[in-house]
Records
---
Amino acid sequence: MGEVQWPWQYSFPPFFTIQPNLETRKKQLDAWRSLVLDYCRLHKIFIIDVREGEHLPLFNNTAISRKLSPQAINTVLEVLLSTGNAGMVDKSSRSRWYVYWHTVDEWATIVYKWAQDNAMVNTVCTFYELTNSSGDLNGLDEGILVKALKVLEKRQLAEILTLDSGSGVKFFS
Amino acid sequence: MDRFEYAKLDPAETVICGHKNVTLYDGDYKTSFHRGNIILTATRFFWTLGEAWLSLQLRYIVYIECTVTDTLFGSKIKTIVIHLLPSDNTNPGPVACVTGNYIKLDFKDKVPEGFFDVFQKTIGEKKWLIGKIPHHIRTGIGGIEKNIYEKQKASDVSITDAFKDLDRLMITAKDMVMISKNISEKIKEKQGAISDDETVRFKSYLLGLGVDDPVTRSSFTDSNSYYTTLCKEIIKIIQVSLDEVGGTMALAEVYCRVNRARGLDLLSPEDLMHACFMMNSDTSSPIKLKQFDSGVLALQSSMCEESVVLKKIVEALKISGSLSAQELSTSIGVSVLLAKEYLLTAEKNGKSCRDESIEGLKFYLNKFLEEN
């Protein structure tokens, strides 16, 4: 797991204040969006809790003693939401968010491709098998996996099964 | 006798009548107050002998009567009986304890002609009530209101008194301004006599005295023309200093400077503001009133373009990297309020961006937009 290449904005104090000027804010939030996605991809972070945000170096630059306030984190995550790169874990609270550095559709494609590559089409496999395989799917959050599988269900390429020892899925060709 | 107290005749009291050789009786008993003089005033009755003075307030007297005494040579009136109310006297007197409800005045020969009638009449007039009457009325809400009214009246009078001197000063000050004007004109005539340097210095002192003929409300009948004239005066006063400070001046500072120049007949903030609003309706005015987004009002010279100010802010930001309103105000010499407005204007135009932290609000060059 390599170190993050922090962009120049990360050490620019105004980056941690949401800018009131609309044009400036757009640029700022764009930068935040790509930074959050890069960071989460690198560290395999699937869920961000806004209340815990300041414990992530992502939102807290101790070198210049600036951190993004919880409201500001929410603002950033809403931008991610609008591009399909985030979603609320629980619709009623806005504090826990999924971060999709692959969108759900992309995850669905990746899962199906894994099934094809590993000759799992027309067989049943458990979630455990999926999330403990080598490759992109390793460590994938189950919540996101279910969402991806549901997309495959809609495409009629898979069906989620409830097994005795947990959940599983059957892929179709 | 306990109604009597030690009290001398007040010089302000008017003596109605007085008689000699009168002995006091407490009830039917003769007292040691023997053959003294009696004096009757409108409110009190005195018995005196040598240094001793006794007084009886007439309000105690219920009624008086004469008693007839039989003698060898027939009957004559020698004694007056005075019936009294119970005592509520707290002042020291010759007798402390109650002995009877009446006293007697015993005249040596007979009661002087007419004394009894005069005494009766004096008691009947009840003059002692007069001083008290207003106090009796002044109770309740009416009394309180009257009290307040009287206090206000008194303070009104004292305020008017206090400012009488100031009025006189104002009149004299007008003369002073006239004199200074005369002197400066004379100096102009005799330009050669004193050195230019001195003239200039002296003139600057005189100018410091202020505006020769300030525009006052009293010289106008309608407020519109008053404001228009006032507006012209303000432009005249402020133009030079406005250019000195870089073209923009917050209205509070304008207010101070204008009133400093007037010296007397000071303007109210409202009048100044109304006059400044007139600047914007007059297109030829070299100074405009500008309202920033935050509501701050400032006068701005028409020479002072926004783009020029922005350029200045960007320069300042480039030099120092980051700036708070405080820092900018010291580096370009404007008030903190205006410095903040400048920075916000720069932000609005995308030239700067903000950094809010525990250290306060700071502004940086807008690298977000610059990078692309």
Note: Residues 219-370 of chain B form a domain with the Arc Repressor Mutant, subunit A fold (CATH 1.10.10.10).
---
Amino acid sequence: MDNNKIIRMENITRVYKVGETEVKALRGVSYSIQQGDLVAIMGPSGSGKSTLMNIIGCLDKPTEGKYFLENQEVSTFDKNKLAHIRNKNIGFVFQNFNLLARTTALENTELPLLYSNVSRKNAKELALQALSSVGLEGRELHRTNQLSGGEMQRVAIARALVNSPSILLADEPTGNLDTKTGKEIIELFGKLNQEKNITVILVTHDPDVSSAAHKRVHLRDGQIEEEEKE
Amino acid sequence: MNLLRTIPVSLRALSRNKMRTFLTALGIIIGVGAVISMISIGQGAKRAVEARFNSMGTNLLFVHAGSRSYRGRHGGGGTYQNLTPDDAKAIQEQADAVKYVSPNVSTRAQVIYGNKNWNTSIQGVGAKYLEIRNWELEDGIFFDENMVKIGAKVCILGSEVNENIFEGADSIGHIIRIKKIPFRVIGVFKSRGESGGWFNRDDMIAIPYTTAQRRITGRTDRIGSIDVSAVSMVRSVEAQEQIEEILRIRHKIAPGAEDDFHIGNMSEIAEGAAESTKILTILLGGIASVSLLVGGIGIMNIMLVSVTERIREIGIRMSVGAREKDILFQFLTEAIVLSVMGGFIGIGVGVGTSKLISHFAGWQTLISAGSIMLAFLFAGSVGIFFGYYPARKASKLDPIEALRYE
């Protein structure tokens, strides 16, 4: 077994049942990601990239196939274990930021630590560190409605980073941002990938975003159409 | 997640919607307040009834002549005078659980003093009547054994009779005529207040039973009833059994045959009254609990709304690693905090209401620690019971759907 492979997927399928009919969102995806990769998963809407992201992020389980995360077969885990994996190993960044409303940047960043055994004092310290690593020093006590889009996405990244996960998983992270701010966010991902050696997976249909990645995977109709490496 | 850490999260969520939180808690506040004040009224009534019966003496027993059946035909109670002064004497001498015995002869007669006349109840009683009945004199003395023995023509007036005949003037030492026979007034009873209904305890005259037999009824071999006081309340059942045994032997009643007398028992009556006030308490408390239940449904309703409003938040929490259990506890804690907070305020409201009721309506109320605990525990369980369903609903959400929810 190759220990460098942080993610290994073997013949993953995901079938949704909508009433009587079955919808095959993924039809046998096999792919591996190395520790420290910066990967872009691309494809038009309906190609299955969101489904794949949900499975990689342990929000969902494959119908068939095996998914290994850091050599653990998480496709066999129950809901509680998956929640634990999401808490410890994975940091999510969403297109629409998904911050708690009317809550400060600091409290949002602390949120994952509420569900792990971190004392309140340590949690605050870790959250402050995470916020400073995304360049939000001095904005810690601002509420989400007092922040700009770019700042909100930075808070979301800080929240994703706070528990020192091995993987950052970003779903169209620039989708709700203007071009300039989007560029800054992508640069931030690149910087985190280089400096902290965090594996970053960007799910996007935007070529500008994917150009920052070292590897690109194109999905179409639930299957991998093309793999690119630089 | 540490359970205690859910509390600040819940408090913050509740403080975001203060008006809604207050209105939701109001259901519990009113419910708990109603339970506490209603139970306090019920228990106050019970206390009042008990106090009243205690003043009458709960160790009191009444022996009445029973019914005689003659060739299969039953007469009514007391239709047959079969108690004798010797029965009373035997009870006094043989029953060791008995303290005092008073043979009674009861009748009604016209009383005359000067130009006043009054029709009242004449009670021929024994010398220990005051002790047995736990009554007191306002003035004068009661007749002693010697006066009973000789059949002295002396009498004690009930306060109402005294008021009607003497109109406030001193009555002790004066002579009144009962059925035209002169009696000297030697004492006046303290007013007892009406006991309600059939017998006004202030409208009566007590004379020695021997005098009543000889001068008024004319039957010296019979008495109407016997008042008995047991040595203590605890031994009153024992006293009752002893009296029954003595009288069955004296009246030559065959084993298995019915008694020809009846023994009434004050603690029986007291228990009956206490039982009815207990039912009153349960009834009042039960009605009040319905409002607590309604308050609980209010909590459930608001929690369901709150869960729907916060589906996105639940999704976010799940995506960063909240387990089902964490979400369940978060919402359950909110419901419990709501109901417990409402419970605390409700205790204040309940205690205040009982005080107001006893102040303005003049009812005796009694707030016991038990009723407060009961209401509080009830409020807490209402929170858990009605909070569980919404909390469970929240915890069972699918994180992907929840994150996508608009």
Note: Chain A is about 35% helix and 30% strand.
